[in-house]
Amino acid sequence: MTSLLETDLHFVLTRLPKDIRNLMKKHGLILGGGFIREVIAGNKANDIDLFGATLVQLLSATLELQQDRSARKFETANAITLISAPRMPVQFIKRWLFPDANAVVASFDFTVCQAAIWFADGHWHSSIADRFYPDLAARCLVYTSPAREEEAGGSMMRVRKFLARGYTIQASSLAAVIARLIGKVRNSDMAQTEEGAAKVLTGLLREVDRLLVIDGVDAVEEHQ
């Protein structure tokens, strides 16, 4: 693991809403994944993902932000999402809990997502995978085969989204994503025929926390 460039760390923090920065400081939350990647790449982020060590910690932060923003709350098995359009949606990831930022970084399925920021000892800190910068610059998807419980089709659907944004993926990484899918298909009694296997795959190929409730809502820039 290494760290973001200081200029990039500062830039991400300046694009992060002030109330989210304060929430991270107060509750010891970790910012991870897509928001960091998109800001550094010069793109528009879709949402803010926050991680924590305990469910109590996450629920306390969720309640505080919900009250402050008068936000609507939507909950899935993976996350609690607060919507206060046109502000950017905030997701508190509850399915996976992490003791520290390095564990958050290691949990992401692609190297271009492996980045985290947190506040401790009076300073902002960051952690990224060694391949974060080179793969982001090359717009190359490298699958990490994370050791975590997840929907087997989640990474495949994310591949589809990244390819639509101009990323590429090498055969070895795509094969690793497919291998995870195959493992789930083999465990299904329905997969005895090609038609049955197709039905199992269709069920697996679903995105995680798609935020359908905010389709058509254009989040505003709200950095301060």
* Inertia-based shape: globular
Largest sheet data: 7 strands, mixed
Ranges where pLDDT stays below 50 over 5 or more residues in a row are 207-220
Please identify which CATH superfamily of the largest domain we are dealing with: Beta Polymerase, domain 2
Helix content: 40-55%
CATH top level assignment of the largest domain: Alpha Beta
Quick description:
The chain has helices at residues 6-15, 18-27, 34-41, 55-69, 101-107, 132-138, 154-164, 171-186, 194-204; strands at 30-32, 48-51, 72-75, 79-83, 90-93, 115-120, 123-128, 140-141, 168-169. It has 224 residues and is of the alpha+beta class. Helix 1 packs across helix 3 (34-41).
Can you describe what's shown?
This protein has nine helices and nine strands. By secondary structure, it is α+β, with helices and mostly antiparallel strands. The chain has two domains: 6-132, Beta Polymerase, domain 2 (2-Layer Sandwich); 140-204, no CATH class. The strands form two sheets. It has a seven-stranded mixed beta sheet with strand order 3-4-5-2-1-6-7, with helices on both faces. It has a two-stranded parallel sheet with strand order 8-9. Helix 1 packs across helix 3 (34-41). The longest helix has 16 residues, at 171-186. The relative contact order is 0.15.
